[in-house]
Every structure is written in C-alpha cells, then in structure tokens.
Amino acid sequence: MRVGLYPGSFDPVTLGHVDIVRRAAHLVDRLVIAIGTHHSKGPFFTPEERVVLAQQALEPIATELNLGLGVVTYDGLTVDAAREAGAVVVFRGLRDAGDFDYEMQMAGMNAALSPDIETVFLAASPGTRHIAASLVRQIAAMGGDVSKFVPDSVNTALKRKLAP
Ligand code: ADP
Questions:
Q1: What are phi and psi of 15, to 5 degrees?
Q2: Cα(42)–Cα(37) distance, rounded to whole angstroms?
Q3: Which domains does the chain have, with CATH numbers?
Q4: Ligand 1 center to 24 CA (angstroms)
Q5: Residues in CB range of 8: below 8 A, 6 or more apart
Q6: What are the mean pLDDT values of the chain's consecutive 10-residue runs (164 residues total)?
Q7: Which among 20, 44, 130, 146 is the best mutation to test ligand 1's pocket, defined by most ligand atoms within 8 Å of the CB?
Q8: Is the backbone of residue 120 left (phi > 0), alpha (psi -120 to 50) or beta?
Q9: Distance 116 CA to ligand 1 centre (A)
C-alpha cells in the first residue's frame, strides 16, 4: 500500500486543497493530511477546528475515490510526520513562481534530511489556481462571499466564526 502525506496549514481547507487531494488519490492508496501547527502564530481556526473541517470536506471524496484518508496535526519536521505516517511521498501544490521558489527550497532541504521520501509537486488546476487560504480568510473577514473558494462546510464555519 502506497501512502502519501499532504502537509500544510489548511487554515481553512479550500477547493484548491480539495483539487490536490482528488489528484493525489490517483497516485496513492492512502493519503494523510498533516496540519502543521508549529509556525502558525495566531491561526484563524484552531488545529482541532482545522482537523474537523478537513475531515468534513475530504471524507466524502476519499470514499468516492476509494482512498484511505487520515487527518493529523504535527508540529515538527514534515519528513518526521511523513515517516510516522508511513508515507513515501510528500505532495505539495504549485500555483505560481512564489510557490515554486519556496517549494523547491523546502523539497531540497527535505530530500537532504530524508532521501527516502520523495516530494511530488502537483500543478494547480486552472479552475482553482487562484485560491489561497489567506485571501479566503481576508475576504470572509470583510464580509465577502467565499462560497466559490471553499467547501460548503468551511463556508458555514467561516460565517459562524465571524458572526458578531
Ligand atoms: P502552507 O502554509 O504549507 O503553504 P497551505 O495550507 O497554504 O499551507 O497549502 C498547503 C499546500 O497546498 C501547499 O503545497 C500549497 O501550495 C498547496 N495549495 C494551496 N492552495 C492551492 C491551490 N489553490 N491549488 C493548488 N495547490 C494549493
């Protein structure tokens, strides 16, 4: 059984993340969503909330695609989270040149730390490439409609969190 790790902040999970999960499902039997909690000073959703939102959004897709799904939090090295999950592949999405520069550096460092774990980049799909969790948070906080960018359950959770 081939296991992949998809690490990120997922604050919150967006349709861009969903797209990456759908496509990673063709490449692995089990995918572990690893929600990083270490560098996120002042996250919008707590790690526990992010886990629940990721589960709600991704479990139906995993069932549909016959993908084993895990959702965990981690606060150490991504390569350690990958090893703990039994993953041989780390998936990252690439949206633009900014992602590329950062991701190449991270992939290089991770390969040096753990040569047995391979980083696989999935190019963002045209329909979701513009979506960034940080912009979703900003737009929602200003009262904008983010329903085109996030799963329904996340849209509801954003409204609840931001309600006066
Ligand atoms: P991080 O803080 O690690 O960048 P994110 O939750 O923002 O965490 O993103 C996690 C991963 O998902 C990253 O590899 C990022 O490039 C990718 N990603 C985020 N949004 C999209 C999108 N719209 N399309 C494709 N990949 C995306």
A1: -70, -20
A2: 10
A3: 3-162 (3.40.50.620)
A4: 13
A5: 17, 33, 34, 35, 36, 92
A6: 97 98 98 88 91 98 98 96 98 96 95 96 97 97 97 98 90
A7: 20
A8: beta
A9: 23
